[in-house]
Amino acid sequence: MQKLKLVTSMFLIITIIALSNFTLADGNEITDGWNKTFEGLTSGSNDVMYGAAADSNGNIFMAGVGGNQSGLNTGSDAWVLSFNNSGTSNQSWNFSYSLNSGVSATDTFYDIAIDSENSVYVVGQGADDDSFTYFSWIIKKYDSNSSENLTGWNKTLYSGNASNTKAKSIAIDSSDNIYVLGINDPDTAFANIPRNITIIKFDKNGNKDWHFNESTTCALGSCYGTAESLEIDSEGHLLLLGTDYDEGNAITFLKLMKINGTDGTQIWEQNATLENTTTSSHTAGKLAIDSTDNVYITGSQTFDNGTKNITAWTIKKFSSTGTEDSNWNKTFRGKNSGEFVEDKGTVIAIDNTDEIYVSGLFNNEFDTGSPNSGIDIAIKNFNTSGIEESDWNKTFTSDYVTPNFATSDNIHDLLFIEGDGLYMVGVGQYQFGISSQDDIWLKKFNATGKSAAAIPIVPEWDEYALFFILAIALSGFYYVKKEEEN
Fold this sequence. Notes:
By secondary structure, the chain is mainly β. The chain is built from two helices and 32 strands.
């Protein structure tokens, strides 16, 4: 009998140890060290992080823009930040860049990527002057010790072009070749010169291999075309997402292309539209690729349903050969879906089990009257069959910080790190008062890379439950000890 009690007590303690790995259910927010908000050196500037990446040590790197980071009169400057996965700042990586020092203009990093040697690459847009007329691509490389690598890098391309000229996305293949996607817009005189969607391939030393150009459409006195997201599949081919214009139907459509990574030739193209194609307009978000090279894209569509203008999230799925999966032609809206609202999908990420995380914006999700909550952030999670997971229907607003003002929050990236979690890189408006404008907002969530068959039997314990079970187990030992003494 005593042995049975001893075994029972030991079983309880072993159970506690096993359950200690499940202290947070999948989808729960991790607030210890996270849920961060901060602004640049100048209060009242628009401070935004647009892209995120992780190195092999689990450090998180972000790239964006901050007010006067490089000096008192430099305007908005490109900005890089880094944290470890506990939320502690890596101070050696807090640095900024201004293309023309002393010029009050806007320089922005739009994306960031890390190679196998933990070298960090950032791409974006630099202002050639302070008239907001002429702009360039900027591409920079930093070694793992945070020192800038100037050998073959620190590139400025397409100088003197129009304001749409920018390097927007970067991807790195398994051989550390670098691919940069952006827009080259030579139309500084508003002469209806088409924009080019451009990809350039470099080796890790900065030598150019090839470039790809796709001319976009000019119509009705305006030129169109955007380049938003670039990823690499398991075969080393590139997938790019942007938009172009259909002059016949007078609509903007999502443009998805697959490019051969070896020689830069086009493999296939899909022009994606949704319902009401004769009146709808589309905005591209980001794309992601799963373990079997299926491609998921997100964005938004705005169309006239006959009585009012409607905006909705867009999610689509394509096979590696470009065939669309009809089960993934998804559109949805928030609970306050009035006219001209800002419901749109912006970013997408896929975990190690091919679960899909999509985030974007809903309008007035926290509306309780006047004032309303403005534009709010939402995150959704779908399994591989396209079924939404209920534990990831999340919405956030920064309205609680300044309850007298409706805020325009935003999200620019989702980063999944296997064995660590899902990171949200966004904007919370007025986090430091009504004068602070756009402020950087970071969140972290428990995301284990679960599948439906791998959900733990007891997914969530709090510290009080664990102490309670431990007390029972110890009392069992005490009882057995007393029995032996008697």
